[in-house]
Amino acid sequence: MIQRLASVALMALLPLGAQAASTWTASNCATNCAETGDAAPNVSYSAYSAAINTNSAGAYVSTGAFAASNLAYYSGSGFGVVAPSGDTASPNHALDNYGYQDLILLKFDDLVKLTQVKIGWSQYDSDISVLAYTGSTSGITPSSTIAGKTASTLTSSGGWSLVGSYADLVSGSDKAINAAGISSSWWLITAYNSQLGGTATGKDGTTGGLTRGLGTAYAGYDFVKLYSVSGTTTPPTNQRVPEPATLALSAVALLGVVGIRRRRNKAAA
């Protein structure tokens, strides 16, 4: 009986599951958004865009430098990005790679391992690239790792790592990502761009350009709106977890209490 009580006490003092599944859904909140019902870190959203450079034939060549852009929320569909010039009409106000390469930054206040992305709207094509920040965060802000970088230098000198590129997302359906299990506090989701590295994992991904091809008008370009992301989190880093010595002392104290009660019961018998 004493051993059983001690075991129960130890189990009560041990931390619960190290990870909890959570979903963060786009809403009118863009800063310090706490998702109702989730024991998850808060998240802040922001947007960046870079002008796409083309050659004389109109074919994609590269992007210019990223700069802060305008995050836009569309009820029922999620977040899009309205770049500085000529980008307000549909489908250009989406998270896209036509005219401008758009990024959405998700800044969590603790480590998160994203595992799924869901879009709420798409048009023409729907390929995305996902990046996680794996560089040093000491003395820097997320914006300093993005602003002034191009698509090709974001991963080579900006501290960002490509998690993967994913083709043909379906609106309303979760897309599995991050097979490597990377955890980070800062994440980027963008329309597919081959200069970020890797290829889209599907029939539409190619290594030779921005998307599967320019075609005519918008053909081959990617236009999506970010509806939600899901993943797992570790307990908050400021959470105090009982130390081994504390656990041992607590168990000993409980055994002492049980022993006293047992002696009292014998004395009263």
From TrEMBL:
Protein's recorded name: PEP-CTERM sorting domain-containing protein
Pfam family, one: PEP-CTERM
Signal peptide residue numbers: 1-20
Membrane-traversing stretches: none
Keywords from the named record: Signal
Coiled-coil ranges from the UniProt annotation: none
Signal found in the keyword field: yes
Domain Ice-binding protein C-terminal: 241-263
